[in-house]
């Protein structure tokens, strides 16, 4: 009898066990990490997402490198003719739609667009003080990333205020460049109106940055009057040219009075080749660095982006900018006893503004974690753009153009010019090159002013003004887009 | 005739009885381990008389005479005959018959007699494991089981091996499901092979009882337990050995190197750097410096016993293995303890428990990657001595940014992982209503993995990626906790009707939950720059590695119901059907639940009357078909989480924000495999020859893969990524053939031979993403595209590159060929596959794949008197490997094939000229793909056991000494260290970047049982 009771109990227990496990809800598990669909419930969460949107600014190091390598300023360099084939091809204007670096730019800039759009999708979800400022920063960032995209690729798919979901990519067309610019302008006007001229935190976007980028966007569309207006808002203050030109590119010159917009980097966190866009450091600086360098002042790098003799010769005699922009490595080595190895296409010169310097933490991989901020929009650049816009607008204002140009020239310890007409424009162009060499603007300046074909070997008019859309991206978006002309 | 025989016996009986009167014979029957066997049938041949042995294995038979033959038979053992020679006491030892048809095989939630099995199930017993002395369980399977291929991911101590059962059926995680006493085990390194009683490998749809986890095959491991009514038995197994590298690569010596470098510089139009060859001599071969002889030792103690109602066993083991690279820089240490206790609470209520505790400690060096120790040893310039004039490690100047002095690298490597793991099971089985058994089992694992690494300040040369500057030494610490449990409850019903209808039915449910959480920190600037201080507490600028990135916590669950019906008619016609319903939390809300049916049939033709013959003793035809699943993706695989990296700098401070990670895909579901098998099991020649042949075909659809997706979706962001989708299918088909023969020639001599062969044809049927392929792997610096692909019509992970057609001998040949960038005489000539007159990326084709077409295993063993011998060889045919261990930098060293380089028209049509100028010779092509077929003598062992007389006198059961050689030699054409090199990745495996070779081990050991 006793045993029978036990038997029943056991059977009961077994049946009960089976019953307990019968609920299908057991396999409905949610992660403790927030889901992307359930966010933006507090200011904190908006601010956190905004940091995520800023993050991709750091990936623009590649855009800066290509802006130089594609131009007549530099050669690709590197270890060998096969080292980063994408750079080598762009340098020689033999790039094609398979270029990996162009695909990176496409992917990374759209990643920035999506992160900004993620915030903007939920811009009305939760109310708090300062929300408009968050929205304004997000809109500036979206404009910044789209400006890079339209600069490289022309017409690109324009998506506003929502991140694309998987599947959406098959139903989206390339938006004409003019419409993309319209959105860029709208975003920047909003940002300029809603952001302060000074931010408590260095690195935050200001109204000055928004106006400067707006002016630049107008300039790229040849809307010179609008460009002049926007840029002169920046000239009105609070920016000033730094007296000591050399100091601008050293660590102490970061976020100085000349800095209108600056991409912030740090050497605190490690990085690897597996995810270059993940680095918190300026990857370009290591890539530009001196090959196998051993000596004072500088750190070693991969010897890409090497200035040509012609670039060096383009400086006027007495231009103090030359020795800041260009490092004559042979001379430097003979003076200091430093050693280095000549890489591919060795010219004897390095891009001194953005090569690795001693004194940082060198967190591994030290080549990828250089802390040098990228001075994306300098006040000198604004003055030169304003000079160009005033010269080209109708009616032109050569007086202002000369004034802005001379402010930049005087700082470079050169005599002011009294030129007018095309001679003045040529001088603006010349000083623009000398002032900004190594900073990633040259190729796009040549293209937008129609001078690329005469300056760049292999440049084909009607083709190389734009880079090709990566072929695989056309495929992955359902083969609905036409390639840029002649690729 | 019979009467005549009787007459003869009567006639001669009187004479014979003069010296062989009717006598009584008594004795003891034991197994090989001198364990007494209960219930052994003892028959007098040609008479119906007989008896069985008692608890102590004793028997006594009266009224026999000299010349009579006694037959001993017992399930699971080879029968034995014994001729009576006098009034004697017999000690009869029966040998285990691992192939016995009556033996029961673990098939998942139950066992089945081998004879009745309708699926393709292979078993490896403890005896095989004992013969091989494997450090890891996987090594016991390689070449032993047809259809199971084991590839080492490294020869370093404690490194993992990849198990693939019947091919590679997924681009994702192709590991089989492994259960140890019912508990899921992902890392086999924590299992001591000495603890294993048997391993069952479910290769076909039979595995369907495990439903959504069965598609990669299922391996069921049973640990050792005690036997009822046996005295305490103790077994000690130990060995110690010396390991050495099986190969060193021929690299250039300093003089040869200087000649080649000068030639390359001259060819590139630059000044040759070496002026005086006479001072160079041989220089340094860094391989000589890093390869060491290394020790290995292993000791295991096990005890067993049991009484009327309870059985128990316990064991402890200790393994210590140094690495052959860098001395004790690589080491694996494992301490394991095990226990089992079974108790019959009531006659029909049985409790069973097992527990395993393992502690392991592993130190590693960087291996099989760019800049790893062996990679550097091959590429380091032989002109650079290990130490410079000041006694410091020489700098590797001018050798590219990744190649550094490997001796310095070893000295500065601190990389350690410790695992503590507890596995426990407890089960109750209850028999009721005569034919029913209800069983409930609870199995759990708990493990802690603690890893730490330290990178001290070091300068290896200018621009080296491994340089650590002052004050910036790095310490990493991480701890991962994993917990899982499985609860199974099932009822089985077993009955026979009319003696011919045999029915077994099973109905059950299973719940599985696995969770884990991870903690990791990186810190800098350890005071004193020494490893002793290297902890996070002592570091500054500490970064929490999990602040925003990745899933720190996971929770993955499975809820299952299953039913199995087995029926046979008179053990002649066999049918089995299984259905399992699985719900997996890894999949999207639209596809969490799936049904996995499978069925198998068998026909024991030898039971048919028409089949009777003297040659074939047993013949079974069987076939199985079923749907299996694979759910091996991480937890929350279908959803989008805010787990990406979003970090930016304000005010020179790094701020961490949030950002969306992988895109979501709510329709995500399991991979679905359709598995078909047809085979035969046969025994011939008095069951001495055992033959199994199988044909299998497995098609996996809905492959889980992460496709390339459009960048406009934002997948290029740090930590973001494409969703996991179901897109693609793969087919594996092939033949398995295994044959074994054993013969007991005399009491002094028996031998066995077994051979198995597996053919495999792997083909990707479709990849349903937009560009039609998935790529992976790494070949060389600066080469944009991945060398390996998965693409329809090709084997998974095939190598995609240019085909070469010799060397350009002169300018005319170049002029007459398709346009090839930078081509000069002496350069590789590529084939213009699409005949467009230009050599470019469109000319790439399939230039090999890492999947062997054929694998074979051969085992030979014999016992002669007190000696035993076994040898075991393994062969792999038709697998290719990519030679990627040459850095091909201007001044890095080269392997000595460059001595056969092209130096002028007609000098070579294989090896291109050396040249530092622009050339296309380093592009991924079949020049870098080699045939890695090989035959390896995996193990040879010779043992000697003390005679029974001596052991009896000493009061012990067995004492055996042996010597063995593991990985004795390898025949291959491959140039690299080890043709078995593979990372194990389905796409990107088989690329050799300095593979840590599997060591050769000379060892001596003893087995001691009392």
TrEMBL record, chain A:
Its main location: membrane. Gene3D superfamilies: 1.25.40.390. CDD domains: SusD. Residues 25-219 form the SusD-like N-terminal domain. GO terms for cellular component: cell outer membrane. Keywords: Cell outer membrane, Membrane, Signal. The keyword Membrane applies. Residues 336-451 form the RagB/SusD domain. The keyword Membrane applies. It comes from the Bacteria. It is found in: Cell outer membrane. Belongs to the SusD family. This is Putative outer membrane starch-binding protein. It comes from Gillisia mitskevichiae.
From TrEMBL, chain B:
It is found in: Cell outer membrane. It comes from the Bacteria. Gene3D superfamilies: Carboxypeptidase-like, regulatory domain (2.60.40.1120), TonB-dependent receptor, beta-barrel domain (2.40.170.20), TonB-dependent receptor, plug domain (2.170.130.10). Residues 1-22 form the signal peptide. One of its GO terms (biological process) is siderophore transmembrane transport. The keyword Mitochondrion does not apply. SUPFAM superfamilies: Carboxypeptidase regulatory domain-like, Porins. Pfam families: CarbopepD_reg_2 (PF13715), Plug (PF07715). Keywords: Cell outer membrane, Membrane, Signal, Transmembrane, Transmembrane beta strand, Transport. It is a multi-pass membrane protein. One of its GO terms (molecular function) is siderophore uptake transmembrane transporter activity. GO terms for cellular component: cell outer membrane. InterPro entries: Beta-barrel_TonB_sf, CarboxyPept-like_regulatory, Plug_dom, Plug_dom_sf, TonB-dep_OMP_SusC/RagA, TonB-dep_OMP_SusC/RagA_CS, TonB-dep_rcpt-like. Residues 114-218 form the TonB-dependent receptor plug domain. PANTHER family: HEMOGLOBIN AND HEMOGLOBIN-HAPTOGLOBIN-BINDING PROTEIN 1-RELATED, TONB-DEPENDENT OUTER MEMBRANE RECEPTOR. Belongs to the TonB-dependent receptor family. This is TonB-linked SusC/RagA family outer membrane protein. It comes from Gillisia mitskevichiae.
């Amino acid at each position: 009898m006793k045993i029978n009771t036990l038997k029943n109990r056991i059977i009961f227990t077994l049946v009960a066990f089976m019953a307990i496990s019968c609920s299908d809800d057991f396999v409905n598990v949610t992660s403790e990490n927030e889901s992307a669909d359930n966010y933006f419930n507090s200011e904190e969460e908006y601010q956190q997402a905004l940091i995520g949107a800023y993050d991709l600014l750091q990936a623009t190091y590649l855009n800066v490198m290509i802006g130089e390598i594609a131009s007549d300023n530099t050669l690709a360099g590197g270890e060998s003719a096969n080292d980063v084939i994408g750079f080598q091809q762009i340098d020689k204007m033999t790039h094609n739609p398979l270029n990996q670096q162009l695909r990176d730019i496409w992917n990374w800039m759209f990643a920035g667009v999506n992160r900004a759009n993620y915030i903007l999708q939920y811009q009305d979800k939760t109310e708090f003080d300062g929300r408009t400022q968050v929205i304004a920063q997000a809109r500036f960032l979206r404009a910044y990333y789209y400006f890079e995209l339209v600069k490289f690729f022309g017409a690109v798919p324009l998506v506003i205020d929502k991140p694309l979901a998987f599947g959406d990519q098959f139903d989206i067309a390339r938006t004409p460049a003019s419409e993309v610019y319209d959105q860029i302008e709208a975003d920047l006007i909003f940002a300029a109106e809603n952001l302060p001229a000074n931010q408590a935190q260095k690195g935050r976007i200001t109204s000055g940055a928004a106006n400067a980028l707006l002016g630049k966007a107008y300039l790229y569309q040849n809307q010179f009057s609008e460009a002049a207006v926007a840029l002169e808002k920046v000239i009105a203050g609070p920016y000033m040219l730094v007296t000591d030109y050399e100091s601008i590119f050293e660590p102490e010159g970061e976020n100085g009075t000349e800095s209108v917009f600056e991409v912030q980097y740090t050497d605190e966190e490690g990085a690897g080749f597996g995810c270059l866009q993940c680095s918190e450091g300026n990857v370009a600086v290591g890539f530009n660095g001196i090959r196998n360098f051993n000596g004072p002042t500088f750190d070693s790098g991969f010897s890409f982006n090497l200035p040509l003799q012609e670039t060096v010769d383009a400086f006027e005699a007495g231009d103090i900018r030359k020795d800041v922009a260009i490092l004559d490595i042979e001379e430097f080595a003979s003076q200091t006893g430093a050693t280095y190895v000549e890489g591919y296409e060795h010219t004897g010169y390095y891009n001194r503004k953005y090569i690795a310097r001693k004194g940082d933490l060198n967190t591994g991989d030290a080549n990828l974690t250089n802390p040098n901020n990228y001075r994306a929009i300098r006040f000198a650049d604004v003055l030169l753009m304003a000079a160009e816009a005033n010269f080209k607008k109708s009616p032109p204002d050569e007086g202002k153009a000369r004034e802005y140009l001379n402010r930049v020239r005087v700082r470079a310890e050169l005599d002011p010019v009294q030129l007018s007409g095309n001679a003045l424009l040529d001088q603006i162009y010349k000083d623009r090159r000398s002032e900004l060499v190594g900073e990633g603007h040259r190729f796009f300046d040549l293209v937008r002013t129609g001078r690329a074909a005469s300056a760049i070997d292999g440049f084909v008019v009607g083709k190389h003004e734009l880079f090709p859309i990566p072929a695989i991206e056309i495929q992955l978006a359902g083969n609905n887009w036409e390639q840029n002309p002649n690729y | 005739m019979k009467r005549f025989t009787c007459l003869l016996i009567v006639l001669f009986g009187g004479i014979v009885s003069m010296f062989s009167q009717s006598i009584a014979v008594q004795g003891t029957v034991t197994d090989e381990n001198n364990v007494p066997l209960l219930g052994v049938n003892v028959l007098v041949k040609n008479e119906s008389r007989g008896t069985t042995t008692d608890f102590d294995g004793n028997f006594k038979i009266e009224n026999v005479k000299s010349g009579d033959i006694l037959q001993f038979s017992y399930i699971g053992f080879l029968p034995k005959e014994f001729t009576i020679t006098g009034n004697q006491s017999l000690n009869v030892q029966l040998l285990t018959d691992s192939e016995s048809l009556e033996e029961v095989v673990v098939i998942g939630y139950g066992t089945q007699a081998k004879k009745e099995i309708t699926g393709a199930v292979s078993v490896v017993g403890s005896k095989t494991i004992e013969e091989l002395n494997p450090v890891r369980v996987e090594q016991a399977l390689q070449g032993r089981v047809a259809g199971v291929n084991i590839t080492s991911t490294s020869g370093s101590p404690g490194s993992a091996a990849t198990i693939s059962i019947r091919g590679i059926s997924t681009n994702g995680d192709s590991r089989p499901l492994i259960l140890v006493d019912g508990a899921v085990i992902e890392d086999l390194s924590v299992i001591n092979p000495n603890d294993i009683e048997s391993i069952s490998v479910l290769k076909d749809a039979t595995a369907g009882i495990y439903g959504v986890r069965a598609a990669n095959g299922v391996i069921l491991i049973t640990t050792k337990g005690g036997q009822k009514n046996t005295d305490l038995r103790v077994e000690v197994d130990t060995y110690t050995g010396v390991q050495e590298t099986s190969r060193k690569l021929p690299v250039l010596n300093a003089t040869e190197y200087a000649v080649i470098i000068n030639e390359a510089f001259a060819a590139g139009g630059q000044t040759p750097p070496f002026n005086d060859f006479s001072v160079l001599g041989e220089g340094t071969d860094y391989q000589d410096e890093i390869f060491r002889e290394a020790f290995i030792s292993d000791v295991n103690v096990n005890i067993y016993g049991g009484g009327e109602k309870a059985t128990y066993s316990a064991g402890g083991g200790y393994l210590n293995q140094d690495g052959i690279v860098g001395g004790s820089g690589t080491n694996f240490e494992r301490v394991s303890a095990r226990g089992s206790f079974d108790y019959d609470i009531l006659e029909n209520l049985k409790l069973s428990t097992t527990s395993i505790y393992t502690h392991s400690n592993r130190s590693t060096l960087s291996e099989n990657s760019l800049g790893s120790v062996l990679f550097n040893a091959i590429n380091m310039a032989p002109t650079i001595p290990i130490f410079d004039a000041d006694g410091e490690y020489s700098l590797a100047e001018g050798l590219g940014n990744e190649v550094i002095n490997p001796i310095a690298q070893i000295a500065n490597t601190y990389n350690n992982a410790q695992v503590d793991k507890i596995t426990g099971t407890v089960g109750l089985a209850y028999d009721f209503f005569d034919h029913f058994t209800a069983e409930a089992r609870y199995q759990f694992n708990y493990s802690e993995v603690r890893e730490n690494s330290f990178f001290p300040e070091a300068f290896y040369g200018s621009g080296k990626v491994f340089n650590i500057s002052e004050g910036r030494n790095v310490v990493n610490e991480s701890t991962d906790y994993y917990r899982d449990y499985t609860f199974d409850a099932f009822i089985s019903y077993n009955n026979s009707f009319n003696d011919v209808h045999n029915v077994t039915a099973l109905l059950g449910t299973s719940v599985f939950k696995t969770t884990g959480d991870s903690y990791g920190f990186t810190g800098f600037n350890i005071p004193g720059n020494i490893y002793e201080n290297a902890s996070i507490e002592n570091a500054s600028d500490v970064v929490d590695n999990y602040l925003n990135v990745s899933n720190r916590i996971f929770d993955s669950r499975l809820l299952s119901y299953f039913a199995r019906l087995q029926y046979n008619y008179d053990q002649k016609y066999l049918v089995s059907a299984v259905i399992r319903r699985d719900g997996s939390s890894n999949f999207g809300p639209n596809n969490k639940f799936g049904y996995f049916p499978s069925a198998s049939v068998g026909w024991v033709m030898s039971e048919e009357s028409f089949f009777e013959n003297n040659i074939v003793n047993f013949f079974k035809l069987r076939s199985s078909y079923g749907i299996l699943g694979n759910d091996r993706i991480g937890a929350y695989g279908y959803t989008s989480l805010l787990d990406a990296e979003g970090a930016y700098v304000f005010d020179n401070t790094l701020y961490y924000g949030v950002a969306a990670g992988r895109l979501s895909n709510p329709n995500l579901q399991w991979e679905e495999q359709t598995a078909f098998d047809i085979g035969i099991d046969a025994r011939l020649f008095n069951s001495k020859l055992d033959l199994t042949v199988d044909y299998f075909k497995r098609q996996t659809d809905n492959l889980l893969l992460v496709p390339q997706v459009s960048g406009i979706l934002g997948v290029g962001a740090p930590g973001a990524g494409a969703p996991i989708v179901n897109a693609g299918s793969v087919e594996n088909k092939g033949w398995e053939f295994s044959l074994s023969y054993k013969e007991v020639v005399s009491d002094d001599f028996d031998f066995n031979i077994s051979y198995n062969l597996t053919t495999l044809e792997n083909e990707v049927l479709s990849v349903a993403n937009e560009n039609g392929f998935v790529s992976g792997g790494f070949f060389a610096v600066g080469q944009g595209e991945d060398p390996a692909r998965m693409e329809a019509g090709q084997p998974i992970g095939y190598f995609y590159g240019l085909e070469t057609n010799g060397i350009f001998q002169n300018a005319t040949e170049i002029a007459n060929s398709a346009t090839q960038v930078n081509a000069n005489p002496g350069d590789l000539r590529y084939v213009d596959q699409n005949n467009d007159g230009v050599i470019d990326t469109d000319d790439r084709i399939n230039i090999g794949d890492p999947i062997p077409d054929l694998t074979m295993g051969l085992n030979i063993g014999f016992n002669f008197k007190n000696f035993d011998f076994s040898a075991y060889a393994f062969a792999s045919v038709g697998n290719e490997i990519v030679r990627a261990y040459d850095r091909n930098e201007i001044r890095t060293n080269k392997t000595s094939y460059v001595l056969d380089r092209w130096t002028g028209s007609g000098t070579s049509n294989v090896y291109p000229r050396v040249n530092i100028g622009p050339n296309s010779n380093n592009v991924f092509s079949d020049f870098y793909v080699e045939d890695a077929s090989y035959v390896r003598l995996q193990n040879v062992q010779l043992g000697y056991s003390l005679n029974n007389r001596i052991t009896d006198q000493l009061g012990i059961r067995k004492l055996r000494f042996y010597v063995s050689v593991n990985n004795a030699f390898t025949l291959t054409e491959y140039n690299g260290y080890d043709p078995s090199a593979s990372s194990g990745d389905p796409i990107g495996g088989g690329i050799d970047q300095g593979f840590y070779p599997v060591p050769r081990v000379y060892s001596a050991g003893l087995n001691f049982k009392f």
